[in-house]
Amino acid sequence: MKILSIESSCDETAAAVTEDGRTVLSSVVATQIDEHKLYGGVVPEIASRRHCENIIGVTDEALCRAGVTLSDIDAVAVTNAPGLIGALLVGVNFAKGLALTADKPLIAVHHIKGHIAANYITYPDLQPPYLCLVASGGHSHIVKVNSYTELETVGKTTDDAAGEAFDKAARAMGFPYPGGVHIDRAAKQGDCAKYKLPRPATKNEYDFSFSGLKTAVINLIHNCSQKGEEVDINSLAACFQETITSILTDKFIAAATALGYKKIALAGGVAANSVLREKLAKRAEENGMDFYVPELSLCGDNAAMIGCQGYYEYLAGNVADMSLNAYATKKLHML
Ligand code: KG4
Ligand code: ZN
Model's pTM, two decimal places? Predict the structure, then answer.
């Protein structure tokens, strides 16, 4: 079954053609990062406008690279939640138009489920159940993946998402948006024990809280500047990265151990972080767990992961109709 999938939840306009969920025939991503960089973060209205301009070209390119036309496609899948509402609406309405014109089924995909599904593309034999840590610009969730389509949240952030904390701390350190990858690079030259940063507590042991950690980085930079002291940015990046990846790893491994999982996965944009990947691989091995993480190109936003999840939604009978809408927020267990 060939699916044409569309993703426009944030600042990437993406389209892909996948076959039977796990085979990627094409995947095209048009990023708007250079434009949002000028403002230090994503400007929602600009994101929507760029999606409007790019979505037809990106979709044409995905069909062309896959060597297919719309009539060869069996269904159209689209991210309808969560994300920037104006950005999601562009993708949803475009997908509805395509499905209506080509008379193909329409499938709605939850963005987080899509991120998790990126693992199925990298590991053709991976099957639920397993426990997944999803860390992206908008989310930090520990999720029980009970089946391809039934997911349950065990813990989540009570304030900033991990990627958001990376980006805000990076901005304070003088790095451009999105800062996660810059912290990852700078940290390689730094001393991860030079500065002491807090590990904020949470009521539920599997929830996360990163806003205090981000604020500690900002305060440290302000205090140094007031005293005329120079901040060793590489070391601050290394300390921040060490702290946030330790929090994510410790809580996730503790949850997997307590809940009896021997199979664990990582997903979302922050899954590209080199230290988080290393830490989880090591801790999984020590605990006799199998660890799965998407290849780097599938960690950030893309439409191949939406096509993959769309396939499993279709098999589960989750097909949308022309009343499909977009939602800025949506719980994982809701269809
Ligand atoms: O999943 P994603 O592409 O978009 C959302 O759904 O939010 O995630 C983007 C986030 C950004 O916050 C970005 O800084 C972060 O992923 N990110 C990283 C790295 N690469 C991307 N964070 C830490 N280390 C990285 N290497
Ligand atoms: Zn994402």
Answer: 0.97
- The pLDDT tens digits of the residues spanning 195-229 come to 999 999 999 999 999 999 999 999 999 999 999 99
Torsion of CA 78, 264, 28, 168, to 10 degrees: 90
Q: Which protein residues are within 6 Å of ligand 1, measured from CB?
A: 10, 136-138, 163, 166-167, 178-181, 184, 268-270, 272-273, 300-301
Distance 276 CA to ligand 1 centre (A): 12
H or E stretch covering 7? strand 2-7
User: Which domains are delineated in the chain?
Assistant: 2-116+298-315 (3.30.420.40), 127-296 (3.30.420.40)
Using CA positions, which residue lies closest to atom 23 of ligand 1? 180
Segments in the chain below pLDDT 70: 335
Q: Please, where are the H alpha helices in 82-190?
A: 85-102, 111-122, 162-172, 180-187
Secondary structure E strands in 256-315? 263-267, 290-292
pLDDT given for residue 330 in this prediction = 94
User: Ligand 1 mean position to 181 CA, how many Å?
Assistant: 8
Among 32, 166, 184, name the best residue to mutate to test ligand 1's pocket (greatest count of ligand atoms within 8 A of Cβ): 166
Q: Is the dihedral of CA 7, 117, 326, 72 positive or negative?
A: positive
User: Mutate which of 134, 270, 299 to test ligand 1's pocket (most atoms within 8 Å of Cβ)?
Assistant: 270
